[in-house]
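Table S2 (text version). Query chain:
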Amino acid sequence: MPDITTNRSAAERGDRVAAILAGRYGLTARTIEQLPIGQGTVNYRAVCDDGQEAFVKNYPAGTDLQAEEAAIALSARAVEAGIPGPQVLPNQDGDVIDAGTPLAVSVWEWRPGGVVTLLSQPQLAEAGTELGRIHALFAGLPATPLAQESATQRWRDIDVEDLTATIDQLLEIIAGRISAGAGAGDAFDVEAQRTLLERRDQLTLVPELLAGLPAELTVQVLHGDYSPVNLLFTGETLSAVLDFRPPDPFLVAYDLGRMAFYPNTVTGDADWLGAAATLIRAYRQAHPDVAAVDVRACGRVALLQMLKSLYGVRQHYLKPGLFQDDLDEFWLIRHRTVCVLLAKLTATDTLLTGLANA
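Corresponding structure-token output:
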């Protein structure tokens, strides 16, 4: 049976969004559609009476709106420099975020294209080129030595004991569900139990993997969430880069490695090392000043980032997300990626050393 309360509240929220568009932006929405995307915001597509389409991002209560305004400024800087992406539409007061009602929103022009999670060779090259252009553009933005040191130390400070304790907590919950019988457990419980047991063993490798990283890695302002889910393609052409995050300086190798070794690529492309090479070559051509050390390290950084994350499975058992089924699949595919990258660590390091020195 449908959840009538949820449907009603979603419809009411859509009506409130329509009222904001009319009262604060001068846009009369003919239809408002909530999109099944995003975990941090509630997102809508609005089709207006004049034919204009808009993307509306609703920020939940407690969001740091100043930080989000800074993220919007980064997006605007990128678009001004020729990076494909949407323009934010200011409200009647010229604000990029309308916080005049309890439903804080930003409104953006609608961009053509669709998300592709397993990229073709031309799409990989396009994605690498635009990431290189973004890093080159943002390289000159302020990032104090203190911010650089803090970002590096924060990332390297992996508390294996705490992660293991969380895994044990999740395993205890799962064991209780499975032992309860009578359908209390489900297929995901079985998979979660298996993968968490594997992850607990894999965490013992963290000190060795960290020791294999160079002491100094570049820290600067980044896109912050550059991945296929935030890229729109029209055919083989990248038509929009979406969802820049606030300008909190972080590891260049993180942004590069996350994209080059994206889970869908590693688990879905038989030649995932070749795919990574295509993306990184395009990236380096667009950003020739990137430090070789960041290219060499990006595979291990991507591996460690996934290895230390319980995102998805933690939410499933402790605090379900907005689209938890997506998070469940995200956990499983990232775990498979960790297993592949660990098994092919030497081959990955060899590839990246060659690309860095080319």
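Notes on Table S2: The chain is about 55% helix and 10% strand. The CA atoms of residues 98 and 104 lie 6 Å apart.
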